[in-house]
Every structure is written in structure tokens, then in C-alpha cells.
Design a protein that fits this description.
globular
């Protein structure tokens, strides 16, 4: 069951990418460079039922992965708090995403004129903060596990890219910049690729024998010197 939950983290990004690509193919005149992804499932969008179903599946799988990550003991002792915080933030991203699809679709054109459209903007901002929390807390939780030696650095880089591109996306929205779609895709892409890589690493770690999965233990300098002397 736990492996199936973790596998959800591999499938979720694939579904998200499929939904975005398919939406662009189905909608004549749609520009991935200029238009936001939410426009594909905005209220009244021609292909909303199909694409919304794919985004709902993506968010549900993200929640499932968050549960699997919480139940998994990857990260070793002393990382429970970070793993819990990361899992909760990851689950929040999925739950809020489901709320956006079911109850608060974007208003056509991205200009909020209804309560649902206004809530869409507000919840999207919370989702952005939750994605940063998920990346950073999970990075801290797994940093000592075997096979995750550079994972914290990778997570921090992903978070920085998301933070910077997210700010640029907000400016692009305010100024109706023609590259709004590109900026948003960099922001979301930095999170989705992180989700896929994280799911792959954790799934590989769970499949490894226990002695391979043992958390990294950093020896103090004196211990390392003694170990070298003993070998000599």
C-alpha cells in the first residue's frame, strides 16, 4: 500500500503535463507562452470537463503521495517534524488544487468578477506558499538519507526558481505581459519536476535493502582521523 501511495507521486506530474499539452492541442489559438494554465479550465472553457478531470486526478494523486511520504520512515530519526510539515504542505497543495477545480474556477480572461474567481486568486496564492513549504521541509527531512546527499541543495534550488519565477508571474499578471504563460510554466514546472524527482528517489529508497537505506551518519573529525589511523 505504501509503495502504491509513493508511486502516485510519479504518476501525478505525468498527468499534469498531459493535461496542459492536451489542453493546448484542443483549444484553437491557445498560446502556452502568453496564456495561463488556469485559462484551460476557466469557467465556461470548451474543454473544461475533460481537462478538469485530469487536474483533479493530478491533485488527488499528490495528496496520496503526501500520505505515503508521511507514513514512510525515510529520513531517519530526528526528521519526523520536517517530514510531517513537508507532507502536510504537500497535501495542502493537492487539497487546495481540488477546491480550485471543484468550486473556484478562474473567471474567463483571468479577471476576477465573481466570488469564485476572487477565491481562485486567493487560494492560488496560498498554494504557492504551500509548494515552497513542501519543497523546503521535505528537503530537510530527507537530507541525511542514503542516496539523498545532494537532495537538500537540489530542493533549495527548486524553491529559489519557484520563488523568483512566481514573483515574475505576479508582475506579468498585473501588467498583462505577453510572456505570462511562460513565466507561470517555469513556476509550476519547478514544483512538478521536484515532485517527480522526489517520488522517484523515495520509491527507490523504499525498494532498497535496509542496510542500504540506513541514514547517513556524519562522523566528527576526531572519529574520522581515528578510523583512518586504524586502517593504516
Amino acid at each position: 500500500m505504501k509503495k502504491l501511495l509513493l508511486f502516485s507521486g510519479l504518476l501525478a506530474p505525468v498527468l499534469y503535463l498531459a493535461a496542459v499539452v492536451l489542453g493546448g492541442v484542443l483549444r484553437a489559438g491557445y498560446s502556452h507562452l502568453a496564456e495561463p494554465i488556469s485559462e484551460l479550465v476557466a469557467a465556461g472553457a470548451p474543454d473544461r470537463p475533460l481537462l478538469s478531470a485530469l487536474f483533479i486526478a493530478y491533485n488527488a494523486l499528490s495528496v496520496a503521495f503526501a500520505v505515503g511520504l508521511l507514513l514512510n520512515d525515510t529520513g531517519g530519526p530526528g526528521t519526523w517534524a520536517y517530514r510531517t510539515a513537508g507532507s502536510i504542505a504537500l497535501a495542502a497543495v493537492g487539497v487546495l488544487g481540488l477546491m480550485l477545480e471543484f468550486f473556484f474556477p478562474q473567471d474567463p480572461g483571468g479577471i476576477p468578477v465573481t466570488f469564485a474567481g476572487t477565491m481562485h486568486i486567493a487560494l492560488a496564492g496560498i498554494v504557492s506558499l504551500a509548494t515552497l513549504g513542501a519543497i523546503l521541509f521535505t528537503g530537510l527531512a530527507l537530507r541525511h538519507d542514503t542516496g539523498f546527499e545532494y537532495y537538500l541543495t537540489y530542493s533549495r534550488i527548486s524553491a529559489v526558481i519557484l520563488f523568483i519565477s512566481g514573483g515574475l508571474t505576479a508582475l506579468a499578471v498585473a501588467n498583462h505581459h505577453p510572456l505570462l504563460g511562460l513565466s507561470e510554466r517555469i513556476t509550476i514546472g519547478s514544483y512538478v519536476q521536484w515532485l517527480f524527482v522526489t517520488a522517484a528517489l523515495v520509491s527507490r529508497s523504499v525498494a532498497a535493502p535496509d542496510h542500504v537505506r540506513a541514514p547517513l551518519v556524519r562522523q566528527p573529525p576526531a572519529s574520522r582521523q581515528a578510523a583512518r589511523s586504524a586502517r593504516q
